[in-house]
Amino acid sequence: MSESILSPGGARRVDARLESAGLLDLTMEEAGRAVADAVQASFPEGPVLLLAGGGANGGDALVAARHLLTLGRTVRVLAQPSKHPLTRLNRRRLRATGGEVQPLLVAALRRASASAGVLVDGLLGTGFVPPLRPALAGVMGALNAAHDAGVPVLSIDLPSGLDASSAALPDLSVEADMTVTLMGLKAALLFGAPATRAGRVTLVPLRVPPAWVRAEALATRPGDAEVAALLPVRTTGAHKGTAGRVWVVGGHSGTVGAAALAGQGALRAGAGLVTVHSLADVPLVTPELMVRRHADWATALPELHKGALPDAVALGMGLGPEAVQVAREVLTWGVPTVLDADALSPELAGHGHPQCIWTPHPGEAARLLGTGTAQVTRDPLAAARALQQLLGGAVVLKGGPSVVASGGDGGGSLTVSRGGHPGMASGGMGDTLSGILAALLGQGLDAADAAVAGVRLHARAGERAAATHGYGLTATDVSEELGAAWRNLLEL
Ligand SMILES: NC(=O)C1=CN([C@@H]2O[C@H](COP(=O)(O)OP(=O)(O)OC[C@H]3O[C@@H](n4cnc5c(N)ncnc54)[C@H](O)[C@@H]3O)[C@@H](O)[C@H]2O)[C@@H](O)CC1
């Protein structure tokens, strides 16, 4: 199932629709109940200490407290005063069912947390507008101190203090072991240092009309079954000429391995015939790979153009200083093309076509956009969208997780990949990905589908290889798991 990623503004607009339909009370009830269920399932022992802020995030905590009470748990609630009508209503409901609500004071929090089995953070959700007001800073400091002392913390919607739409870490935010996020994912739960504050994230979609949420989604995160549906299917009559002919254009003195890895990735992602074109001597990492060494590109490219062109090209991996010139010419062929590494230059903006996939990492993205890497990593969704507008085709902004932006009617789409492994942070991984993407283009996928499927395939292969190699993972290990990763996606 595809999951939606919501901005605070998007969540607010769904909220407004729920309110005008008279459903907001039921939604808060469902949210609070889901939080109580998560507490029961993951933290079944000891008293539950719930902290409720003044907004609807606090309202969710009050609903959770009522359910936990009726389940027989010992419950302690510390709450800020609230003007929110539903939060006030749920405070009355909690009291009416025997729950006590005390003021949210640092001293009371310190006392109660000493014996708590779990602490529930319902202070701030998507309604938080930075910067944090000092009154809550002391409370959050005491909450984090309890966490450091070993009390597990469950945050509602997102850890308090995080800006839902930003991947930048604020000075102070709650450190959670688990986050129950509501209706849709939030960018802060997926990217950068804020994501590490959230612990294990569980999405509770809530029974809200899916179309309302989809209409507000900044981006989606496709499920594996949806990715599997994009993968090419062969007929029994398939042969090497119909399974995609891929050219890898890359490699230079000292960086020939990059082209070889891309070639290997393409073969392992199902390409029928893969030829590496280079000015350098490319090692035959896989004997099935064909290699053509050229004297110079000025002569080689027109010659190649005169013959049968391939179904897809991967270009730029270790290609060196001539990459932009080579890319300019290859792009005129109109063949589906993956542009990576040295070919990721702002000079190529306007030279691409709809069947191009551009694959920058954050540093390359910053260079393309004329900005800093920090700006790219602070908001990878916005950066991916801006790159797609600059370059056209599909863009894979690589990272953990990667973002795919593609064009099209209605403004195109943004998807966030799932999975992968930190062991994939090693040289050559991007080269393998370029080969995979070219193989999928060569097997007939369009740029957007190839990008989404290829990134997930790469991540899944990385997960498999990491099970054996951990942080010692190499790009070759990932390539070797590609066939099994493909099977895993299909076997769901
Ligand atoms: N449809 C939805 O969007 C749903 C939302 N729900 C909950 O509602 C939350 C959003 O509720 P709200 O919009 O009421 O907002 P929040 O409850 O997230 O935040 C508002 C509260 O935070 C305080 N606050 C804001 N900025 C602050 C700052 N800089 N320093 C200190 N305090 C600050 C405000 O004074 C107010 O008390 C979600 O995160 C989620 O937990 C759920 O009830 C389920 C349905």
Automatic annotation (TrEMBL):
CDD domains: YXKO-related. It comes from the Bacteria. AMP binds at K398, G399, G400, P401, S402, G430. Coiled coil: none annotated. InterPro entries: Carbohydrate_kinase_pred_CS (IPR017953), CARKD (IPR000631), Nnr (IPR030677), Ribokinase-like (IPR029056), YjeF_N_dom (IPR004443), YjeF_N_dom_sf (IPR036652). The keyword Metal-binding applies. Its cofactor is Mg(2+); K(+). It catalyses: (6S)-NADHX + ADP = AMP + phosphate + NADH + H(+); (6R)-NADPHX = (6S)-NADPHX; (6S)-NADPHX + ADP = AMP + phosphate + NADPH + H(+); (6R)-NADHX = (6S)-NADHX. HAMAP family: NADHX_dehydratase (MF_01965), NADHX_epimerase (MF_01966). Homotetramer. NCBIfam families: yjeF_cterm, yjeF_nterm. This is Bifunctional NAD(P)H-hydrate repair enzyme. The gene is nnrD.
